Glutamine--tRNA ligase (Lachnospira pectinoschiza), 550 residues
Amino acid sequence: NEVVSKNFIEQIIDKDIEEGHCKKVITRFPPEPNGYLHIGHAKSILLNYGLATEYNGQFNMRFDDTNPTKEKEEFVESIKKDVEWLGAKWHGDVLFASGYFQQMYEAAVKLIKKGKAFVCDLSAEEIRQYRGTLTEPGKNSPYRDRSVEENLALFEDMKNGKFEDGTKVLRAKIDMASPNINMRDPVIYRVAHMTHHRTGDTWCIYPMYDFAHPIEDAIEGVSHSICTLEFEDHRPLYDWVVRELEYENPPKQIEFAKLYLENVVTGKRYIKKLVEDGVVDGWDDPRLVSIAALRRRGFTPESIRMFTKLVGVTKSQGAVEYPMLEYCIREDLKPKAKRMMAILDPVKVIVDNYPEGQVEYMEVPNNQENPEMGTRKVPFTKELFIEREDFMEEPPKKYFRLFPGNEVRFMNAYLLTCVDYTKDADGKITEIHCTYDPETKGGNVEGRKVKGTIHWVSATEGKKAEVRLYENIIDEEKGVYNEEDGSMNINPNSLTIIKDAIVEPELINSVAEDKFQFVRNGYFCVDNKDSKEGVPVFNRIVSLKSSFKL
Ligand code: ATP
Ligand code: MG
Ligand code: MG
């Protein structure tokens, strides 16, 4: 059991418990169902879920659907799927902010009755002008002193559809001279004749985020409402709302720094552009970092959990390097993934002294580091494929692989010596001829100096498969955004498709999201979109070599 110092949020919670302010830790994940979740959201999900678990509390899954313009049922489903996949288990049913519209309306009426809210006729533009600036206080709205009765009647009319969009709003009556602009009589309700994805046309007034969110939290008994740093100066308004509405155990807002990955596109607007321009094949393209894309690429929930743990929780903003995420998936798959042989750039080897038509099954450990994974039988035949780069006509010094006259170990099979080769008109190697030593089965090399070991697949028993290799979609030398016009610096080589890689026969039966190590080539995952039964497509998750050190 390692000793880990608690993060600043745990310290706050500990103190709240100690001082008797918190009987049960209740957290929530409150996405707006207006897009797909990405790696940043994963951090928020795992943080909130992790805290609830750690303190024996409760984790709520709540859709913050108070803005009908962009919200869609499709996103509700994809978000639920992603949260489940990450392993975060929410309490009871999923919740919807729109389920509290009636209570929010009543809360607004309560504020009006307390003289803490008023209906304002200023236009959006006028409200902006009256608001003042960081250095100048704002001006009171001419409608600020309407009577409680008048405000109640007008708000009722707003609710009943008597006004056009944008003609009237309800504002909190706080302080137009506050140094915090969020406190200058913020709008808390607006008129919007829109159909909501859940409540339909029941409402034509909708609460603003800063008013709705604390109410949602308070209704659910959330103890700690964790959000990202940009909401720090909204906290006084959050506190004002729960105080004026006189909730008994008001929730406490805590902010932490968003997760950013260096040289990685996370902005919705930019991803949308990549999709629309056909640079990627959708929100789940394996080069993106939406949760769906990470799943499709082959990242596991465990690797993402490890990653968010490593990143930690802080209040200071900073970007994390992508290789750290790669490190986590390697660590996770190292003991779990079968190590199989696949040839990405095949060249044929013919074993001259091996019997024609013979198939010999070699016993191969599935994972040398994890004997519990057992062994499998891999067919060896007269004709084999190896990687083109594993043969050289004229090798440089320290090249220990196949070249004329050299003997190398064919992994888990025999020692083979290169005796000849053929080339085509362009000088491309077409066939390599070898002889094998029957006494060396299984790689027994007693007393022999054999420095090279290469992998291979039977040419007659192996299967063809499509393999996809990826690089960052961003040109890392230039950075994500072009400084001149704000466009993205796209790497034109981010996807390499290999149509005719040769894989061990067993791999042909793998199914979507199966993961393997391909010896020397990296970790691979069966694509969950383009694979068909018996025709898997393999995505490279990550190569074997790491540039990241813990
Ligand atoms: P985006 O615009 O990237 O989708 P968002 O803030 O609009 O982000 P929401 O659906 O409002 O997304 O977010 C749900 C929760 O996820 C919020 O609590 C938010 O603070 C958190 N979150 C969003 N992005 C990140 C991030 N990069 N790192 C950590 N938490 C994040
Ligand atoms: Mg969002
Ligand atoms: Mg948001």
Notes: The first strand starts at residue 26 and ends at 29.
